[in-house]
Amino acid sequence: MTATQDPFRHHLELRGRIIDPLTSDNRHRDIAAWDEKVRAAGGPANWRHADDYREETRRRALQGRMNRDLWVFAYGSLMWDPAFLFSEVRVALLTGYRRSFCLKTTLGRGTPDAPGLMAGLDTGGRCHGLAYRIDRKHLDEETEILWKREMILHAYSPQFVPVETQAGAIEALAFVVDHRAPGYAPGLSIEQTASFIATGVGALGSSLEYLENLAGQFEALGIEDPQVRELCELSRSIAAS
To answer: Cα(31)–Cα(37) distance, rounded to whole angstroms?
Structure first.
């Protein structure tokens, strides 16, 4: 492999900090098994998008773009577990949107009795993250995996946004929070947010683990995010008590 082929050539510090897509559980997600888990927990039948609708949103979002490489903006768990194959990764900054822990989860990282919180990309502010490039020759297969990863729940809307990187400006696909989502919970105080994160544990792990993974990526990249740092400290304190 030459230097120009190395996906981590811009950020060697990320090597070993991003789960190999080929070994990721999210690459091989069994939706039928999740349907069974939700039924067993007494959840609603319409807890997720129908397969046909999910595929329709993918084809609509990517219409006219299948003959070129695709950039994907990551601001949450995609930063350490994208599950799709990528040819390049860059640190990226998105202006006009912010990372907001505004999505209650009662399955993945929480329960109905103790909901957790996941990050959503909401309007206003700025958001540091990563941008991954998917090679056009793998685009169909890898975006199917991406859509199974991000467009299962009624939580996000796929949109293309302008993103800044040290290697230049790019247009990237981002999954923006859908304000109609059943779990959308805007306006939480930092104390309320930390409480949900400190106590939420579900089938995918804890909300605190999710937040700590995010903080760990920022630390490795030398990115200072006061909101994430303060939220981490408060959530750890609540969990310990």
So the answer is: 10
Domain that holds residue 174: 3-240
- What is the number of other CB atoms lying within 10 angstroms of the CB of residue 239? 15
Residue stretches of the chain with pLDDT short of 70 = 1-4
Domain count, the chain: 1
Residue 208 phi, psi (nearest 5): -65, -40
Angstrom CA distances, 211 to 105, 116, 144, 147, stand at 14, 11, 26, 22
Tokens of 102: 């505004």
| 16 Ramachandran zone, left/alpha/beta (phi>0; psi -120 to 50) | left
Nearest to 120 by CA among 47, 176, 192, 190: 176
Residues identified as active-site: 150
Backbone angles phi, psi at 164, to 5 degrees: -100, 135
Pairing between β-strand 156-165 and β-strand 116-134 as defined by DSSP bridges: unpaired
CATH code: domain of residue 9: 3.10.490.10
pLDDT value of residue 39: 85
